[in-house]
Design a protein that fits this description.
The protein has helices at about 5-20, 30-35, 40, 50-70, 80-95, 95-105, 115-135, 145-160, 160-165, 170-190. The chain folds into two domains: about 1-45, Arc Repressor Mutant, subunit A, CATH 1.10.10; about 50-190, Tetracycline Repressor, domain 2 (Orthogonal Bundle). Helix content is about 65%, strand content about 0%. It has ten helices and no strands.
């Protein structure tokens, strides 16, 4: 069993290295050097660099999924579930910013990692089921495709890792509330839509007259 103090150092150093340089470009020598260890000493804690990557991302990935599982089982109305899910997502990204960034950069969407693909799929399905609840209850009257709406929300939330900086002028809760207001506004408000195919009347134009030459 690894000593917690050294293990935490290794995890933090690995997360920073993976986020800054990418997993492929980071060597175990880089991580060992960052914590003042020999490369061989790392093998007391891990069997491979992949083990270290999974250790970096597992905590926040499981936390965000577990919170959505619990929220899905409540009797709250869909609007409140979406609001709480959004806040939870943003707060976990904020509290585990580097680790979450590594997950989205190196793990998310990789089909060759079935365990993590299954987690991503479950998260998507749980959130989509909440959106469908809102559609069925009439709360989300503007939704025509729950899957597209859910993917749009998840994509917007995950994109935070590209521009948000913890400790900056924007607080995580403020961002979460703004995301909720924008997203829920789009779900609830039905806007008048123009037909996809329209006959457009061309604008008549007058050709410029040629100048007379003296």
């Amino acid at each position: 069993m690894p000593r917690p103090s050294r293990w935490n150092e290794i995890i933090e150093a690995a997360a920073e290295a993976f986020r800054t340089n990418g997993f492929a470009a980071t060597s175990l020598e880089d991580i060992a050097s960052a914590v003042g260890m020999w490369k061989g000493s790392l093998y007391h804690y891990i069997n491979s660099k992949e083990d270290l990557l999974f250790a970096v991302v597992r905590g926040p990935a499981e936390e965000i999924l577990n919170q959505l599982r619990e929220l899905s089982d409540t009797d709250l109305p869909p609007t409140e579930k979406i609001r709480r899910a959004t806040r939870s997502h943003v707060q976990i990204l904020n509290s585990n910013f580097v680790y979450a960034s590594v997950y989205l950069q190196e793990i998310a969407g990789r089909r060759k990692l079935p365990e993590w693909t299954a987690m991503d799929r479950e998260y998507l399905n749980l959130l989509e089921s909440i959106v469908r609840e809102g559609v069925d209850s009439g709360e989300f009257s503007a939704v025509t495709n729950p899957r597209v709406a859910t993917l749009a929300l998840i994509g917007s939330l995950n994109w935070l890792t590209h521009w948000y900086r913890p400790g900056g002028s924007l607080h995580a809760d403020e961002i979460a509330d703004q995301f909720c207001d924008l997203f829920l506004g789009g779900l609830i408000t039905r806007k008048t839509k123009a037909p996809r195919s329209q006959t457009i009347t061309p604008i008549k134009t007058t050709k410029p007259r040629a100048r007379r030459t003296a």
